[in-house]
Amino acid sequence: MSDPMEVATGAAAIAPGGALVSAVSALNKSMGIEAMAEVTRSADRLVASAKSGGFTVTKEAADPIIKVLEEFIDKVDKVRVEMKVFDQAPKLGNHEYGLLAAHHMHRAANDEQSARAALAKLQIILEKSRDALRIASKQYREQEDSVLDSLQDKED
Question: Are the beta carbons of 114 and 30 closer than 8 angstroms?
Fold first, then answer.
């Protein structure tokens, strides 16, 4: 008889967005909860650095990266919507094993180590990275405008 947790993990591969879900689940398992939390903290530090002028980037350099990040954000969002199927425990019958397996599958699909949780964290990291680039690009443009203004003032 199969372990219900193995069944639940296998179910992720056939769920909507299966390949992405499987990849994110593997990432989450390989990195672990604390490592994912550290990546999130790093994204927070990236935003803070951009806000404080710790780095700037040209619009031409930032825009293609922002575009790719937004494409991934959209893909992650679509998969997360499709994963609403995991809001309900699967119907595996009213017998003891079916109820137990359904409970384990539902828990595995929704706990902090699930693909859903990893996708949520990944989306936050992508959004923070995009925001940091937007801020850094805006600050670069403002610095450039300020330099141009000061040079024009000297010419007058």
Answer: no
37: tokens are: 């939390």
Query: Residue 100 pLDDT more than 50?
Result: yes
pLDDT given at position 45: 92
Q: Is the dihedral of CA 6, 7, 9, 13 positive or negative?
A: positive
The Cα 38–Cα 44 span in angstroms is 10
pLDDT of residue 31: 64
C-alpha to C-alpha distance for 79 and 9, rounded to whole angstroms: 17
Does the CA dihedral 100-106-108-112 come out positive or negative? negative
Q: Which residue has the higher pLDDT, 87 or 13?
A: 87
**Alpha-carbon distances of 121 from 44, 46, 138, rounded to whole Å:** 12, 16, 26
Quote the pLDDT of residue 36: 80
Decide: 65 and 71 in contact? Cβ < 8 Å: no
Task: Mark out the alpha helices in the chain (DSSP H runs).
Answer: 4-14, 18-51, 59-82, 96-110, 115-155
Residue 144 backbone dihedrals phi, psi, to 5 degrees: -65, -45
